[in-house]
Amino acid sequence: MRPVFDLAIPSQLSAALIPDLILIGGAMILLLVAVWRRESREHQRFVGYLSIGLCTITLAAVWIMMNRLGSATDGPIAVDNFRWMADIVILIGTIGALALGIDDNDRALTTTAETHVLILLASSGMMLLAGARDLMIVFLGIELMSVASYALAGINRRSERSAEGALKYFLLGAFSTAFLLYGIALIYGATGSTGLHQIRVRVIEQGLSASPLLLSGIGLLLVGFGFKVSSVPFHMWAPDVYDGAPNPVTAYFAAVVKAAVFVAFLRVWLEALPSEYGAWHRAITGLAIATMVVGNAIGLMQRNMKRLLAYSSIAHAGFIMVAIAAGTMQGASAMLFYLLAYTLATFGAFAVIIVLSRGDAPVTTDDLSGLWRVRPWLAVAMTVFMLALMGFPIAGGVGFFAKWYVLKAALQAPIPQYTLSVVLVLTTVISAGYYLYVVMVMFMRPRAADAPIVPPTQSLTRTVMVACAALILLLGVAPDLVLRYASVGVPTVGVPRAPAGPPPTHTALAR
Amino acid sequence: MREFLLSVAYDRWILPALLVLPLLGAAVILFGGGTSADGDDEVLTGASRRPSRLATAVFGLEFVLSLGLWWAFDPAVSGWQQRVDVAWIPSWGVRFTLGLDGIALMMVLLTTFIMLLAAYGSWTSVREKTASYYALLLVLTTGMLGVFMSLDLFLFYAMWEIMLVPMYFIIGIWGGQRRIYASLKFFIYTMIGSLLMLVGIVYLGLQASHDVVLHGFHQTVPDFSYDTIMATVHVTPHAALWLFGAFFLAFAVKVPMFPFHTWLPDAHVEAPTAGSVVLASIMLKLGTFGFLRLAVPLFPGAALDPRVRTAVLTLAVIGIVYGALVSLVQPDFKKLVAYSSVSHLGFVMLGIFALTVQSVQGALMVMINHGLSTGALFFLIGMLYERRHTRLIADYGGIARVVPMFAAMLTFVSLSSIGLPGTNGFIGEFLVLLGAFRTYPIFAVIATTTVITAAAYLLWAIQRILFNPLDKPVNEHVPDLNRRELLLMAPLLAGIIWLGVYPAPVLRRMQPAAEHFVRAVESRAAMASATVDAADRGAR
Which pLDDT does position B44 carry in this prediction? Predict the structure, then answer.
């Protein structure tokens, strides 16, 4: 039997934070290493490799903690499998971003080794987010993550688009953080606590569920999270930022940053506010539908690959929100599984874009025309990633199972989400319009005579691409390899069994 | 023979082997090459002749292996045979369950037979990127066979979607002028239909869910097993109507039934010859097979609801008449045959929804016959196209004198497609009309008129191609069929004659399945309406 942790004891609290401490401490040391020597290609690569090593060590620590450590019922830091699984997704994504970044810096002649350290710092913020069971720690994590992200968005100092994107990201990010903070303040005002567990207890004990203070707090919090996950109508910043940032950073934003925010989003909603399900359910449903429809519909018009993937990322935020709307533990597992699948597919697709990109010019679908004729395996890999994002069975591998899991969670919820399921399915058909378009131009259009020669794939980029494709296909026939952990993961989470779901009380529905 | 097969445990490995063998073949073609000196990029896009020989050998082996099923299958036994059942995704209750009944048996044999010919027939028509082409054909085979064999609804769905990707590429890369448009239309149409079916499948699986202990926890796991769902799931009539609608859409697009057929002429015409053959001979049957296996038996209450049934039969008869009439005016021979498929498949739908033993048996026969005759027609059109690079009927005339062998075959195959007594086409449509006449005389009478129209469009077409005066000089030097093409057509002709003269062995294997289908549907429908009546009484 696993021990129950008491996080009021400082030594036990720090034990629960070992992986986070390893990452953040390592990042500090690497920051010193990065500025120790003059900027050069070799030094940039060296720091990059060290960063990947640090992430691997952290990953190992998370794995050990997951298998050794017990659970904690209370305290500011979650000790449960939901956190560990989220950490694993975040770290895998971080390693992908670092690997792509090492190669991309070489190509773009960027010699600043600090890019890697910034990514590490952002990731430590995310790991904090994944473990946060207190709104203050949520805020701390988001800030640590965001500040590093703003810098990353503008890391390419020679590009105007990058600067524009970074400024937009910074302004809107600060704006959304204000929403978040104000929401936290109002919730604190209503309940007198920032701890997720206490909030839930007090809402029920003191009969606060109709309190206007609490409801407006929830609303503001929702807007804040909506900005961070780029759900419609708070999505406007995403395409510009994604377009302007260097490719590996864009992949990192689209997959990992979003994953971390979603993890916190779900935990706050299901752990602190399950009794308010009736109130937030309708809002989340509306946001999810708008996000799925708008994201996919605008995606159809994109010809710039990075913008296409930006809208795809918005659309996927909508799909993930369906899992939150289910409001169950199964929804939580489904979300983790979806985030893993989405991270793999997104990094794979960006690896292909990195191979094709030349200087600052955007990669468009025209650059992909007839790719099959010159680089068939590159085209095949891109097809796998596109089909995975579309959620096509077997050929799209794990992407299908991810959508399937969300669909299953939505239909199996105590209040089955029929509307959301049908919208999810129909918007998936719409998304076929642009994902298939990419496949079509690669295979069925001729290669233009003046098309530039596609440079050979760099080794790390190739590794990321092959690993992503292999994992997508492997998990596409044997999802149980991961499901085993994802589905055990959640019952021990702070999201407790009975009250986590929507309460069967009539008050919530009657209102 | 049967003893020998059982002694090598044929029953236990044959179905998985038939699914895995094509995949292995595809892998060998793609990765086992190592022949080209131009670097590995050439493996996918090169024009080597090796893949065609290799793929044909794999398909040959596949066909020979599957032939054993003819003897291993025991017509007297009801229930699934050659059943294989292993866990696939325990957390979601998904199993890898395969099995055959008489209907599936015939479709599997038809598939392996037609695919062998399709690969052999592509030797000259596909000359570029051969490795990719044959690898896709092989993967396509796995998908189609998987649909016929699956006894798990989830597996069924996965296989159903797998087929889509190879066919999309086959049409889109090796197709004709408007191939991109045709392939996208094919993909999107099929996908819209099947995704709603997915929601229906999830719903059914959750209805059948049960508690198990998994990974140390009590969990509620859905169950997608066909048998379990048939035995335990009783949905309300209202839900049944929606679910039937979801399945209906998926299958009606594939069949294709009348208003959903518009993808078919494009896909058929633009696809390369083998693609058209596979589409017509096998993929269309997947739709009617879906009705027989899933849509009707699962929701008999909805399927036999008088309004639904009349609507479906009306669409089927419209399809029969409309397909034939449109064929009559097509200038393009390939399009003519494509529209004739709409008409033939309408007969199948009429047979299934008329729901008598005879009409269902007739429908099954039409499925097989259409596979042979229309497949043969598309092959012949392809051969003609390779010689003259046109499919317009007006470009030919009087070529019977130049290519006598070709003319004889085209005439013979057309007659079988029309349903001349003595060929296979006759018995199927005759049984459908006979069976349907008992329950729906008016629909049957209207459908009968098409027998005449069918004769008109095909005979008129071959008259204009083969027999009118030889007035175009280009046609005077068209070479006749060569040995490979004769070898390709011979098995098809043999099948056409065999099924026309002595269909008893085939009928004997399908009869129990057809009877079981009709009885099961009727008794389940009666049960469903009885529960509704009881509920009504209770409400009063």
Answer: 65
Phi, psi of B77 (to 5 degrees): -85, 130
DSSP reduced 3-state for A161 = helix
Model ipTM value? 0.84
Testing the interface with B: which of A383, A404, A415 to mutate, by most B Cβ within 10 A?
Answer: A404
**Smallest Cα distance from B263 to chain A, Å:** 16
The pLDDT of residue A252 is: 93
B79 CB neighbour count, 10 Å cutoff: 10
pTM value? Answer: 0.88
Q: Nearest 10 degrees: CA dihedral of A456, A460, A465, A471?
A: 150
- Predicted confidence at residue B540, as pLDDT, reads 54
How far is residue A373's CA from residue A359's CA, in Å, rounded to a whole number?
A: 23
Of A405, A425, A443, Cβ closest to residue B172: A443
| Measured distance CA(A472)–CA(A391) in Å, rounded | 11
- How many Cα atoms are found within 13 Å in the side-chain-facing hemisphere of A148? 25
Helices (H), A300-375: 305-326, 329-356, 365-368, 371-374
Collapsing DSSP to helix, strand or coil, B86 comes out as: strand
CA-based torsion, A339, A343, A344, A345: positive or negative: positive
| Nearby residues of B434 by Cβ (< 8 Å), 6 or more positions away | B358, B359, B362
Run of H or E residues at B193: helix B179-207
Place of tokens 């296989």: B159
Residue A457 to chain B, least CA–CA distance (Å)? 13
| Distance (Å) from the alpha carbon of B442 to chain A's nearest alpha carbon | 38
Closest to B304 (Cα-Cα) out of B291, B321, B318: B291
Q: Which two tokens stand for residue B439?
A: 């329950």
* pLDDT band at residue B42 using 50, 70 and 90 as cut-offs: low
Residues 6 or more apart whose CB falls under 8 angstroms from that of A140 comprise A125, A128, A132
In the beta sheet, which residues pair with residue B16?
A: none
Query: Which chain B residue's Cα is nearest to A479?
Result: B89
Rounded distance between C-alpha atoms, residue B339 and residue B326, angstroms:
7
Beta-carbon pairs below 8 A across chains A and B? 99
Beta-carbon contacts of residue B505 (< 8 Å; ≥ 6 apart): none
Amino acid identity, residue A216? S
